[in-house]
Every structure is written in structure tokens, then in C-alpha cells.
Amino acid sequence: MEDDRMTITAQFQGVEISLVSREPLLGTLELTSITGANIEVPLDYYSAEALVSALVQFLAQGSDDRQTFGPTDTGDLSF
Predict the structure, then answer these.
(1) pTM tops 0.85
(2) CA 79 to CA 73: how far, in whole Å?
């Protein structure tokens, strides 16, 4: 069986995640494709946690001295 799905290139535009529900935690992350179409990625607690973990691992590849993840003294996140 042949996979006929098409890959869509998209980018994160820095838009906030839309919160749908607090209990259970549900939301959507919006991406914009190169054609300008919006792509909504549904999130729950576990998928958001997996996404953060993957992003931290990605950022660690480009940083030799800052391999930790957490808030700084100013409240920003440090990777």
C-alpha cells in the first residue's frame, strides 16, 4: 500500500496557544503553511509535554554550555 499523504511545510509564527479547556487540559497550537493556510495542532497535557521535551532536545544540540531547561531570575525560560 502506497502512502499518498503530502508533507506540508509550516512555521510557528509566535502566536499564543489557544486554551480550550483546563480540565482536562486541551488547546491548539497554530502553525502557518508556506501557502498561508493555518494549521491547528491539537494539544493535550501529554502531547504538550512530549513537544516540550522534543524542543529541549533540539535546542540542546546547538548549545554546549546551556543544556538545562528552566526559568531564569527574570522569569524567562533558559535552555
Answers:
(1) no
(2) 13
